[in-house]
Amino acid sequence: MCYAQVETEMKMMQLRATRDQSEMRSMAQSAMDSQDVLGVARRGVASLDAIKESRANIAEIERKLVAILDAKPFGLPLTAQEKKDLETAKRDIADAEEADKKDKAKADEAEKATPPPPSRMITLTQQVPIQTESGTVTLPVGTKLQFVSQVNTEVRVHYLNSDYINPIDLTDLLIQP
Fold this sequence. Notes:
Blueprint: H1 2-34, H2 37-70, H3 80-113, E1 121-123, E2 128-132, E3 135-139, E4 144-151, E5 154-159, E6 162-167
Antiparallel strand pairs: 1-4, 2-3, 4-5, 5-6
Helix pairs in contact: 1-2, 2-3
């Protein structure tokens, strides 16, 4: 029974992940067209939360399996398959707990290392091509970007978790007070 629950939960998690990836790709494309980056980020967080919930459900099912097998009624010995299932479930639980600890440590480290973003926004007055991890993207006129710093005639802006340096004359920074 427990393994059927784990298998069902795993299938549901895979289906959700596949659906979410497809949806996020579509949203990412429309975000580049409409600057709805925040919408894509929210969907990504929701997808990760659903995966975390599935992992927690699987861990709970495995804990129940361990409890059942550890306390087999009537003092009956475990069969060879039950012993194997018990060892596998205990190992899976330990692996999941270790992964959760690592995830938490990474999140804590990232939170400490990430300074709060500046709140000043600038607007592009001309199209700007930028090189992202997924290729070259052209940001349209009117795109609002987070201002980071200015050095002489160049401005550093924050876009999609990365900083980019562009000529200041492509922005409204010279016009702003």
